[in-house]
Automatic annotation (TrEMBL):
Gene3D superfamilies: Cation efflux protein transmembrane domain (1.20.1510.10). Coiled coil: none annotated. InterPro entries: Cation_efflux, Cation_efflux_TM, Cation_efflux_TMD_sf, CDF/SLC30A. It is a multi-pass membrane protein. SUPFAM superfamilies: Cation efflux protein transmembrane domain-like (SSF161111). This is Cation diffusion facilitator family transporter. The chain crosses the membrane at residues 14-32, 52-70, 82-101, 113-136, 148-173, 179-197.
């Protein structure tokens, strides 16, 4: 079995476990959030519910990425991964905005909070999120896994905030810790969501992948032969690991039968792009 297939198979199993645990606890946390009156707990439950959906989406993307290329999908289905990451990133932006709005409303019109239930469920959430985070840490990292992990880390941080707020409310009556903690946590989640969304969007727009430079590739091509004119260079990727480049050059040499292969090998040796993903057109 190919190494990539083994990696995806491992990630698939880990995503199933992570999604199941997250979905189960999201239901528990939302229920007890209503009972305790804690916005942080309800917000974390809603966020964990969205995380469960995100993990399921990541699971689907992992399954689809293993499908072979077809006549209609000549690059295969690996772009499902950045699509899933982009959607996951958007949820990391949208849900915190809702929580911030609700937190401000709670600051203006406070409601009664039951810190004991908040503390118990927050502690359980901390354990569950820690387990899910550990599970995903064993996955083979890619943008899809990173976006899922960011959701889990956000939940983990929120669970810590819930526990701290519950203790503050229980022993010191600091009810303002609940909405303030929600706002701070939401801002941190938004910052991480922006990074993932931006990276996924760049892939979907076929932008130059991170760590690659058109200028560097052009210089490598020019080093092959002094009489070469580089007409055009395209660099893109289907996901963060499948990078492609297409190069058009003009050569003044009459005998350039081996030039195309020489350029491809030079790029493959110098830059981290597989030979099979390098296309060179010599005019």
């Amino acid at each position: 079995m190919p190494e990539d297939t083994l990696k995806y198979k491992k990630n698939k199993t880990l995503f199933i476990w992570a999604a199941s645990l997250t979905l189960f606890f999201a239901f528990i946390e939302i229920l007890y959030g209503f009972i305790s009156g804690s916005l942080m707990m309800m917000g974390d439950g809603v966020h964990m519910g969205s995380d469960a959906i995100s993990l399921i989406l990541s699971l689907i993307a992992t399954i689809m990425a293993t499908k072979a290329a077809t006549k209609n999908k000549t690059f295969g289905f690996k772009r499902f991964e950045p699509i899933a990451a982009f959607i996951n990133g958007l949820t990391l932006l949208i849900i915190p905005i809702f929580i911030i709005t609700e937190a401000i409303s709670r600051m203006v019109n406070p409601i009664e909070i039951f810190p004991n239930q908040m503390l118990v469920v927050g502690t359980i959430g901390l354990v569950i999120n820690g387990i899910v985070g550990y599970i995903l840490s064993k996955a083979n990292s890619n943008l899809n896994v990173k976006s899922a992990m960011l959701h889990v880390l956000a939940d983990l941080f929120t669970s810590v905030s819930v526990v701290i707020a519950a203790l503050g409310i229980k022993y010191f009556g600091l009810t303002w810790l609940d909405p303030i903690g929600s706002i701070i946590t939401s801002i941190i989640i938004i910052v991480g969501g922006l990074k993932i969304t931006k990276e996924a969007f760049n892939i979907l727009m076929e932008g130059t992948p991170n760590g690659y430079s058109v200028t560097t590739i052009e210089q490598v091509v020019k080093d092959v032969e002094n009489n070469l004119t580089v007409k055009d260079i395209k660099v893109w990727c289907t996901n963060e690991s499948e990078v492609f480049t297409m190069i058009q050059v003009i050569s003044a040499m009459e005998n350039d039968s081996n030039l195309q292969q020489t350029i491809r090998e030079k790029i493959s040796d110098t830059i981290n792009i597989p030979l099979k993903n390098i296309y060179v057109n010599v005019n």
